[in-house]
Design a protein that fits this description.
10 strands, about 290 residues, 10-stranded mixed β-sheet, alpha/beta
């Protein structure tokens, strides 16, 4: 296992034979090309049901056949998009979230599509990948529910900054992504006024400006071509980050630790963005 999250050489993309995989695969193939990584397409076939009364072998055989055919089509599609890209595919047995989670330990990043389910539907959908994988993956996870806004000029990437170690990891990834894209970086530190403010609001805002400046200090020398904007909107973090990312290439946020399988430990801001942002959402674990 790699000693550093996201230090692998593969971009793993989960393929769902039952749904359109092209948007997520296009993002993953383009990113692998930009970063000179290999692309690994995966379809996971759930295990047989443990029952004495129903034989689901024919159903599993059909699932494997559909998965194999979809993988072949998707692999050819990715190679047509980037003929020089190294790409491979695997049909693996196991629950999709567990399979992708295992692969994330050695991957540079994982890319998934999203159906923009409600929170309740996301938790109880048998085929859901987004919440459990984003909660426990050992590398950055990219959720592509909407296309990146490549027509926006100048192009920009949004990163949420709150001074935590996870947001510092997100900032590092966001700078690298902006540099690869020739994009501007918008560092957003949302000020959410407490019910009882002990000091003057302007004093609190000044402290947040100082925190944002200190967190981003030093990166400009490493990425001199990336223009950065500091922004401190007032409101709810999910709403303000989603608004800032409305025309972005992507929004990048940190994730603290690894949550349980159910995804109930996924941070509320990350979880909210997965359902509200209209661009790819990238969650980055603490390094």
């Amino acid at each position: 296992m790699n000693g550093k999250a996201g230090a692998g050489r593969e971009v793993v993309v989960g393929i769902d034979p039952a749904r359109d995989w092209r948007l997520a695969l296009a993002w993953a193939a383009d990113e692998a090309q930009r970063r000179r990584l290999t692309l690994h397409l995966v379809v996971a076939v759930p295990p047989q049901h443990d029952t004495q009364h129903v034989d689901d072998t024919p159903h599993r055989t059909a699932l494997r056949q559909a998965g194999s055919e979809t993988l072949e089509e998707a692999l050819n599609w990715a190679r047509d998009r980037h003929p020089e890209l190294g790409a491979s595919s695997d049909l693996l047995g196991g629950t999709p979230a567990a399979v992708i989670g295992m692969l994330s330990r050695e991957a540079r990043m994982v890319v998934l599509g999203s159906r923009h389910l409600s929170r309740t539907a996301e938790f109880f959908s048998a085929g859901s990948l987004v919440v459990p994988v984003a909660a426990q993956a050992g590398c950055p996870v990219v959720v592509v529910g909407d296309a990146e806004h490549v027509s926006q000029q100048p192009p920009y990437v949004v990163v949420g900054v709150d001074g935590s170690e996870s947001s510092k990891a997100a900032l590092a990834f966001a700078y690298e992504e902006a540099d690869l894209r020739g994009a501007e970086l918008r560092a957003i530190s949302v000020f959410q006024p407490p019910v009882f403010l002990l000091h003057d609001e302007e004093v609190a805002l000044q402290a947040q400006r100082r925190l944002l400046a200190e967190t981003t200090a030093g990166w400009q020398s490493k990425y001199p071509d990336v223009a950065i904007r500091h922004e401190i909107p007032i409101g709810h973090p999910v709403e303000e980050l989603a608004k800032a990312a409305e025309h972005a290439l992507a929004v990048v946020v940190g994730r603290r630790g690894r949550g349980g399988y159910s995804g109930m430990h996924l941070g509320s801001v990350v979880h909210g963005l997965l359902h509200r942002a209209h661009c790819p959402v990238i969650t980055v674990p603490t390094l």
